[in-house]
Specification:
The structure holds two protein chains of two kinds.
Chain A (H helix, E strand, L loop, with lengths): L8 H9 L5 H14 L6 E4 L1 H16 L10 E5 L26 H8 L3 E6 L38 H8 L5 E6 L5 H7 L2 E4 L19 E6 L2 H11 L29 E5 L9 H16 L3 E5 L7 H16 L17 H12 L2 H13 L6 H21 L5 E5 L15 H6 L5 H6 L3 E8 L5 E8 L4 H15 L15
Parallel strand pairs in A: 2-3, 2-4, 7-8, 7-9
Antiparallel strand pairs in A: 1-3, 4-6, 5-6, 5-10, 9-11, 10-11
Helix pairs in contact in A: 2-3, 5-6, 9-11, 9-12
Chain B lengths: L8 E2 L4 E13 L38 H13 L7 E2 L2 E4 L9 E4 L9 E6 L5 E13 L3 E3 L8 E3 L6 E7 L6 H18 L11 E10 L9 E6 L2 H20 L7 E6 L4 E7 L9 E2 L6 E2 L2 H9 L5 H12 L3 H8 L2 H11 L4 H19 L10 H12 L5 H14 L3 H8 L7 H14 L1 H8 L6 H11 L6 H13 L1
Parallel strand pairs in B: 12-13
Antiparallel strand pairs in B: 1-2, 2-10, 2-11, 3-16, 4-5, 4-15, 6-7, 7-10, 8-9, 11-12, 13-14
The chains are: A alpha/beta, B alpha+beta.
Amino acid sequence: MTVLTDLTLTTAREGLRRKEFSAVELAEAHIAAVEAARPLNAFITETPEKALGEAYRSDEKLARGEGGPLEGLPIAIKDLFCVKDVLTTAGSHILDGFKPPYESTITSKLWQAGAVCLGKLNMDEFAMGSSNMTSYYGAVHNPWTRQGDNRPLVPGGSSGGSAAAVAARIALAATGTDTGGSIRQPAGFCGIVGVKPTYGRCSRWGVVAFASSLDQAGPMTRSVRDAALMLKIMCGHDPKDSTSAPMDVPDFEAALTGDVRGLRIGIPKEYRVDGMPAEIDALWQQGIDWLKSAGAVPVEISLPMTKYALPTYYIIAPAEASANLARYDGVRFGLRVPGDTLGEMYENTRAEGFGAEVKRRVLIGTYVLSAGYYDAYYLKAQRLRTLIARDFDAAFEKVDAILTPTAPSAAFALGEKMDDPLAMYLNDVFTVPVNLAGLPGMSVPAGLSADGLPLGLQVIGRAFDEATMLRVGGVLETAANFTARPKSDFGKGAA
Amino acid sequence: MSAREDLLVEGRTGKWEIVLGLEVHAQVISKSKLFSGAATDFGADPNSQVSPVDAGFPGMLPVINEMCVEQAVKTGLGLEAQINLVSVFDRKNYFYADLPQGYQISQFTQPIVGKGLIHLDMPDGSVRTVGITRLHLEQDAGKSLHDQHPTQSYIDLNRSGVALMEIVSEPDMRSAEEAGAYLKKLRSILRYLGTCDGNMEEGSMRCDCNVSVRRPGDPLGTRCEIKNVNSIRFVMQAIEYEARRQIEIIEEGGTIVQETRLFDSGRGITRTMRSKEEAHDYRYFPDPDLLPLVLKQEWVDGLKSGLPELPDAKKTRFVADYKLSPYDAGVLVAEKAVAAFFEDVARGRDAKLAANWVTGDLFGALNKRGLGIEASPVSAASLGEMIDLIADNTISGKIAKDVFAAMVETGKSAGAIVEEQGLRQVTDTGAIEGAIDAVIAANQNKVAEYRGGKDKLFGFFVGQVMKATQGKANPAMLNELLKQKLAG
């Protein structure tokens, strides 16, 4: 018998069409799995009634032969996306009780396509983190654990709830957002596919902002084909977002031809960083070999400015965040901690409402924009950002896509690296340059570490050429044949 | 610029030069806000014109309103300014309860409009040119209401996000009078363009005054900024007071501290709002939610060719075509509607006479009633008709004043009033001669004196004849005939 939670978007879509099961049954199976998986803490808000209502209406549409490309498919939403009348927290105490009176463009498109909403997913506070440890709603547990070691591991971040939910098979897919790696790193840590499209592909309207010039939404799924399907629905020009690109969206599923013959794949020599585990280096070489045997041509490239990517990112992102988070002041929505003066109310509200990592970044951002420091930090970082983007421009004159590891390590244990923000920031060393250059990047599960944890490979594409990137990702997926399952697996049917 | 001697002010220890620069915030006329679709009507119920963008809700994004850009460019063109085809919106960061985003979207290093000029029409008829430094677009903040509750403040976000043009002048003005003339001229240009209604009482035009003083020929002194003055009269008062205050401090051996001050219109003084040390660090940086604003030259050219005739051009034309004095022309063009009214009156008539009637009796009547030209009780056509009656000698200019007063009172036409009140001028030579003869007969002694060389008595005879004709005798004919008769 088919275990409904073990399907993918594409196989579930087929099952619904063939009437093997109903959308309501599919939703019920996932709602049960969400409940059973509560120890993972992947959800901040579960919306089972909403899911069932939507599934019921999907069944009606399907019975009439109607329905969108995601009709009746249960997915979950990172709690950074505003969903109308549903608590939206961004993982922060400061948004206590905030139910937006509007729906983000991305979620509107997903519901329009027929998707069913299971709820809102846990995440690092305001998407600031690489472990999901900064959430006000507590850590998310990675469904995977090390062999012979039951200590809980982080799912990565900031889209940690999204990655955990998809990997544990409690949602067919999830939305994520990626400012410096927040889709790709948790996808890598949890053994799923995560795509960050080109900056400007997905509307940011209705997505709580972290760093506006870097934030991009994207799909997190259990197959490259699912990612292609979901990405097509999420993309598209939105007149409500001035940075949204007025470009046509290709049929990404059609791009998955499996044919990478003659494609030139860039291998950046600077990405062999000090202290990277040998097994990650080996997996990277394995990826190169897989693509080579599929007919692609590996080409060594140089991205010399990459070494400045992390410091550049940790100036620009906090600078933008310091302004973006100024609106959380206790005046109009969310948490308000009273004070005797307006200033005191601000201080009390923001002191109590923001966690340590958010405060750290707001302080850094305020500092780098201050009179007397602006030129030395913010302006210099902007110049470096241009140089980093130029590195990629030059590389893409020679290659069609770039292959790197997703992260320099596998998932680490809860609480590790928490006392050392710099070590934590290093987790994003391979993903951050992609955001700075505005390029598309994706993580594909490619293998296991020696202690049995998933490891991902990152494919980086040309701007607005997600199609080629997905094609390469699809070939890696086939070659890797990643069939390992996490310990917390709700796709196994009734236990 | 060398000091203008006539504008120096006398202190206890010698002469001082006042140096003034003005920053005007002009609310853009547009149906919706600078970055949201919410309405901008004045006087609506609190918080009834607020979109989630204006309220700074999470995930909301600004989208530039093309109409506001058009209005700013038109204004720039009206100020003979450089239009920057690429400009950038920045975030100006500060916390206040009526600033929902925690930053104001403004333009800092790359404004939409660069350097321009404005020509002031001074009361003595001279023209003074003042440089415009820049014009940039920015959002207005909301309004805090502190008098609604004993311990808490209320916030009205209707104004939040409304488009403002900040128009900055060079420090080119040297007297309160020039500052007043600057604001009047700027307001006139904005109204001609239809880009700002210029109503300072409603706050749609607000002025910050930068004031400093120096000895003639010295470098610029330390300035104080007087914030948010809301009438031209107050601007002039504030400047007078502030300049005097600064001169006294320096003359007593003190130094001026750079600071922001407020004008207390009740007491006619300025007082400290915050010092330089308390000044905000606004941490400007380019708003990542907005791409640079890029304009096409052809689009700007199109706006330029569609601009209305502006006050300066109209004034030049009035002087050339109607032979008006520059002063009269300046008065008539200050308001577009007045200029149009005048042109309607002057069409096909003696323009100088038309100008005198409009700026004299008509303005007098409007001022007395507190009316604008749009609400004038006498239409341009009616005034024209009355002037026609003067021209064809039906009434004299003197009688016309009474006719006009009656027109204002009753709304009737000049012709009707003349008929009803029997004011038609006497142009019948015989009737006038008869009256002259009677006056001469009755005043033989005075006639003798006159003929003996006492010329001044001529006026006495004119008065007597006018009295006899109830003022209706045509003055020119009366003069002519009286001269003849008295000559004997």
